[in-house]
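Support request, priority: normal
Reporter: lab tech (M.K.)
Component: structure prediction queue

Hi team, I submitted a job for non-specific serine/threonine protein kinase from Lupinus angustifolius yesterday, and the status page still shows it as pending. I've pasted the exact input below so you can check whether something in the sequence is tripping the parser. The sequence length should be 927 residues. Please let me know if I need to resubmit or if it's stuck on your end.
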Amino acid sequence: MQKPEPCFLLSIIVFLCVFVLSVHSQNDDSSVMAILKKALNSKSDLQWNGSDICKWKYIQCNSGRVTAIHISSLNLQGSLPKELVQLSQLQTFQCNNNGLTGPVPYMPKSLQRLAINNNNFNSMPNDFFIGMTNLVDIRIDYNPFSQWNVPDSLQDCASLTSFSGMNASFVGKIPGFFGKDGPFQGLVYLALCFNYLEGELPGSFSGISLERLLVNGQQSMNKLNGTIAVLKNMTSLKQIWVHGNSFIGQIPDLSNHDQLSDVSLRDNQLTGVIPPSLTSLTSLTVVNLTNNYLQGSPPMFKDGVRVDNDMVNGNNRFCTKDIGKPCSPLVNTLLSAVEPLGYPKKLADSWKGNDPCPRGNDEWLGIVCSASPVNISVINFQHMGFSGNISPKFASLTSVTKLLFANNSLTGIIPSELTSMPLLKELDVSNNNLYGKVPSFRPEVVVKIDGNPNIGKDPPPASDSGDNSRGEVKKNTVGIIVGIVAGVVILLGLVAALFIKSRRKKLKHVSKVQIPNEIEVHPHHFEDGNAKKVSVAGGGIGSFSPSSSAQNGEAGNMVFSIQVLREVTDNFNERNILGRGGFGTVYKGELHDGTKIAVKRMESGIMGEGEKGLSEFKSEIAVLTKVRHRHLVALLGHCLDGNERLLVYEYMPQGPLSKHLFECKEDEGSKPLEWKRRLIIALDVARGVEYLHGLAQQIFIHRDLKPSNILLGDDMRAKVSDFGLVRLVPEGQASFETRLAGTFGYLAPEYAVTGRVTTKVDVYSYGVILMEMITGRKAIDNSQPEENVHLVTWFRRMLLNRDSFRKIIDPAIDVEEEALDSFRTVAELAGHCCAREPYQRPDMSNVVNVLAPLVEIWKPTDSSPADIYGLDLDMSLPQALHNWQALEGMSTINTSTSTTLRTGDYTQSSLPPAGGFANSFNSMDAR
Ligand SMILES: *[C@@H]1O[C@H](CO)[C@@H](O)[C@H](O)[C@H]1NC(C)=O
Ligand SMILES: *[C@@H]1O[C@H](CO)[C@@H](O)[C@H](O)[C@H]1NC(C)=O
Ligand SMILES: *[C@@H]1O[C@H](CO)[C@@H](O)[C@H](O)[C@H]1NC(C)=O
Ligand SMILES: *[C@@H]1O[C@H](CO)[C@@H](O)[C@H](O)[C@H]1NC(C)=O
Ligand SMILES: *[C@@H]1O[C@H](CO)[C@@H](O)[C@H](O)[C@H]1NC(C)=O
Ligand SMILES: *[C@@H]1O[C@H](CO)[C@@H](O)[C@H](O)[C@H]1NC(C)=O
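Reply from support: The job had stalled in the queue. We restarted it manually and it finished. Here are the results:
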């Protein structure tokens, strides 16, 4: 009787324990499920009744534990409770297509499938994925998250096969860890469409077995860019959706993509001929190519392939509209000759039709034709920013007499085939980075090879395949430098702002981001305020810090608080007013570090109710963060606070050109501008506008050029300002219609009449400015007799008559006899700029070409260089930069080197050979 008792007791205890344990664990899931049920605000849909949660609808259990929750499309409201993480056996959680709100809570590590897409969740922790090693399938698309980077913690999900994060507010770059750099061996589906991503497709994608890549429709200002070359090595792809981005370059060879079926490349800036590997893909079912700059013959796809219907008409540059019809032999030769240059977009943009020597005004950029017989006589690719190799194919252009490739970043050798060109008289390859022996040309051929440090030397070892990549590296140097500087500056900002003790560590970090030897070159590049612009702006270009994400992922400029701006302008004191414009009042201010700034306070009253003013404001930020040039005023930051909209610029101490042209007569204190100064200013402005018109990646039209929008520094060098009316030309279009805006007297006639704008609208305004600079008269001068009120009309009339010519010159200028020629040249240029028909007006690049030699002739000799090319002492860099320089021992950044490029400015090509690096920059931006 005594024996069984302990046994019985024991078993009871054991039973109880088991019971309690199981009840306890089930209780756990039950209580979590009860919390979930309550949190979901279910109407009657869920039918989660009864005490056994495993019998609940939409729930799956295993051994009493919840393993799956499928509550998709149930019109659910509410938010998810943080207790969900306690469902430690949960493998599947799907709540997609509901109206759930709030943050996404942490989930248990057992989870394999997560679908929370199409809800109203507002955030997800960055470390959500830490330890989530079982996740295979992730869908978080279409939630109004606040902006974030693709989280690094995702790298814990090594089993991932599918990641879908469309319209999930991602900013920054596509992380390299989705490619070879990361842990995902089995990733087959990656969808990142409709985010705010920027930068290039990661090189680490090369060789991975991804099957579907969807990155279309980025909404960031820059979108995804660079080439799509890496797709060549992603041979498992079935679907490629990269449309609606800023990709450039050619479509890569796709001949190994035997499963590829759906290819959407439309709405990019792709150039070059369609590779036969694409047209002959047997697996292809859909291909979309509209709205690129694709060249050559319009491709013929096999029956059954759906092609987007606007492929031919929709802004491509096919040589004909007849699908499958070959291009003329001359066009084919030209296209194959520019292939090794990567089919530059500039050329693609301008080369329309099937005849490189068209009649009329549609001349092909870089191609000069002789009149009879009509044929190509000169290839002029000078100063085009090209990289890559010189193609031997040029040799087939037997009618050519001059091959001009000077001032680019070309690499490789001079092909010996060129020696066979029968009519060749001149080959100019100066200022590139060519190497190798110069082949022997006929003695009468002039061969110019200056400025190629390695010419005559052997090719660098292992350079067989290296040529191209070297070219590419160069192409990106500017971007890289800007990126580096921006990155450095972000770090600096952190250092300065937060007083982080580990300053040295940070800087080590900087050097890890690779500021290699090139660093001593970049002061050249950013001389003249550019370095300051970039630095003060805090990484406006190229990088994007999460902290600045509040601005829609766009600007990345420094955000000033209204308090700071009130303080530095003495509460917008009248005394500090620098000027008033159509959109607001500009105040002077000085930051604590001594940086002088100009603050434009938009007048919301004037600008009308809200939206319109806001769009001007955003337009200006958008433009100025995108275009940065030494002759465009730099935006340092902005402030948006309630109704207050403020823009912060670099301060231009000498104020607007209008003051110097028109006001000095009354105000005896200031001297009238000498002619040579005016020439230099005219050239500065021309260069700034030329850059806006196309040297930047896209085409911008200023629409409001006038002397009051041209600002002068203490060195009397000019920068164009006021970008409130700037319009970005829609891709692939030359003109478009807008609401008329601008200033009377400067409006091109066709614009005033029809509202159609082209870059020639700016050329017209520029011509008026030239006339004002020559004559000292205002565009509209009501003090003149009726017939002379309109400057352009009067000027044209005076110009016709040789005798009256001297009378147009501003009486305030001392005219030296030998300067008369340059007056005449500029006067004629001004006349052409104001030609009645837009096509009769020159391009801004032509203007630069006319003015540059004049300025060179008139290079001042009387004052010391430092005086003229001066160091903008007024615009001292933030203290942080100095600290950094001191630490890095780079005290040269703003001193000894700063005159070099300016000299280059005059002579176009005289940068010292600081490696090919300087050259490449010179040709891209220094012009
Ligand atoms: C569950 O409860 C709701 C109300 O609480 C009721 O309308 C519904 O009929 C119940 N469903 C089941 C299956 O009992
Ligand atoms: C992205 O989602 C938001 C709402 O979250 C929606 O308003 C917007 O239209 C979506 N964008 C695209 C391109 O689908
Ligand atoms: C493609 O792969 C080859 C071989 O690995 C490599 O040399 C090449 O650079 C890759 N091309 C691209 C565009 O990634
Ligand atoms: C591509 O073009 C086809 C045919 O016009 C169209 O049905 C399809 O929606 C397009 N696909 C994309 C991704 O634009
Ligand atoms: C034009 O030059 C090409 C070679 O560049 C030649 O093949 C062609 O016959 C020439 N055409 C005419 C009309 O002379
Ligand atoms: C791509 O865009 C980034 C900014 O998002 C810019 O810094 C970079 O220079 C661009 N790269 C190219 C090749 O245009």
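The first strand starts at residue 59 and ends at 62. Residues 4-39 form the longest helix (36 residues). Let us know if anything else looks off. Ticket resolved.
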